Amino acid sequence: MKKKVAQRIVVASLGVALVLLAALNVLAYKHARAMLQFGGPEGRMRKPEDLSFTEKADALFNGVSIPRPESARKPSELDPNCRELSIESANGATLSAWYVDRGTSTPLVILFHGYCAEKTSLVAEAKALMDLGTSVLLVDFRGSGGSSEAYTTVGMHEADDVAASLAYARAQLEHADIILFGQSMGAAAILRAAYMLQIEPQGVVLEAVFDTMFNTVCNRFEVMHAPSFPSAQLLMFWAGQQWGLNSFAHNPVDYAEALTCPVLFMHGTDDPRAKLEEGQRVFAAAPDPKTFITFEGVGHESYLSHRPQQWKTAVMKLIETATDPD
Question: Is 281 helix (H, G, I), strand (E, B) or coil?
Answer without folding.
Answer: helix
